[in-house]
Amino acid sequence: MAVLSNPELLQKYLSLNQGNKVQVEYVWIDANNGLRSKTRTIDFVPKCASELPEWNFDGSSTGQAEGHDSDVLIQPVSLFADPFRGGNNKLVLCETFNNDGTPHATNYRHSCKKIMDLHADAKPWFGIEQEYMLFDPETNKPYGWPKHGFPEPQGKYYCAVGAGKIFGRDIVEAHYRACLYAGVNISGVNAEVAPGQFEYQVGPCEGIDMGDHLWIARYILERVSEDFGIVVSIHPKPIKGDWNGAGCHTNFSTEEMRQKGGLLAIERAIKKLSLRHSEHIAVYGEDNDQRLTGRHETGRIDQFSYGVANRGASIRIPRHVGIEGKGYFEDRRPASNIDPYRVTEVIVQTTFLPEDYKQ
Ligand code: ADP
Ligand code: MN
Ligand code: MN
Ligand code: MN
């Protein structure tokens, strides 16, 4: 069921010339790790986010301010092409600020950017694998699941092809192409283990770009699935029971790790990660305890573990990295509903702790 009642009629209006005006969609993160946006007409074609004016929104309607002092400032920080309006129109991701100029309590980009700037010389790269599940708003069940009962158990859905195994490929394809159009560094997509569950990968992205590109990829998925009348869930355990949860595996490397002999730097970083397991879990997503059970390709939430090619560990060193002796590692703990700014910030912080660091 498409939400839009008459796409052909809409097209009549959207094909009207918009003159030399540009529509810029200001996107920001709300108090519940969700996304909001509103549009502003600009009379030039912006080349970068900093050319765009600051704006504000009513924070009392997003859980981000009290009614008597409700303006929250939004400052454009990262510019993308708008795949929905096309042409010169743009999407711009914004940071949120209080009236006194301090970053809003829900603005995790601000401190992340400082840490990324501090360690820019190390060229930190990330790749995040965003898992999600599509839901049918009419049945409140994952898209493609039967009205009554359950689909056949997991086994045939991961990377599947064919009717009865894949539900929602249109959305996956539309999202992938729209991300490429926007300039999001999307690196792939695949169908996941549970029916109606998918993944896209964003990266490698350097520093702050990881959070920026993932948030815009999420925004685009929300908009695409809105068009199709489908709801996206990034809850880490959308369906209880013997169905895989959803994560945001975070792949990480520094320049040193990517060079010859880099495995030593990877092992040093993993040692430090092992000393700060709970500090990381604290920012690795709400309800992650429902997912990190030690089953369904996860490590347990209360134990740190690592291994080459081990998908039941907290940290996995991909087999090819073990063989080549350089590359990156995968932190499998982050949940699908993370704020990527918090996750990338803490990974960089821990990696650059002093070598004699003791908890
Ligand atoms: P998996 O085998 O865990 O399913 P994927 O292929 O889904 O892995 O995702 C791997 C991610 O790692 C991709 O986003 C990719 O861009 C990223 N990646 C590749 N090389 C590096 C690197 N050197 N540093 C950080 N991330 C990397
Ligand atoms: Mn993957
Ligand atoms: Mn996956
Ligand atoms: Mn993975």
Overall outline: globular
The CATH class name of the largest domain reads Alpha Beta
Structural class: alpha+beta
**Proportion of strand residues:** 15-25%
Beginning-to-end CA distance, first to last residue: 54 Å
The rounded Rg comes to 21 Å
Order of helices and strands: HEEEEEHEEHEEHEEHHHEEHEH
Describe the structure.
The protein is an alpha+beta fold and 359 residues long. It contains 9 helices and 14 strands. It has 2 domains: 20-107, Glutamine synthetase, N-terminal domain (Ubiquitin-like (UB roll)); 117-351, 2-Layer Sandwich (Creatine Kinase, Chain A, domain 2). The chain is 26% helix and 24% strand. Strands 6, 7, 8, 9, 10, 11, 12, 13 and 14 form a 9-stranded mixed sheet that branches. The chain has a 5-stranded mixed sheet with strand order 2-1-5-4-3, covered by helices on one side. A hairpin with a 5-residue loop joins strand 1 and strand 2 (35-42). The relative contact order is 0.13. It binds adenosine-5'-diphosphate and manganese (II) ion (3 copies). One manganese (II) ion is lined by residues 129, 199.
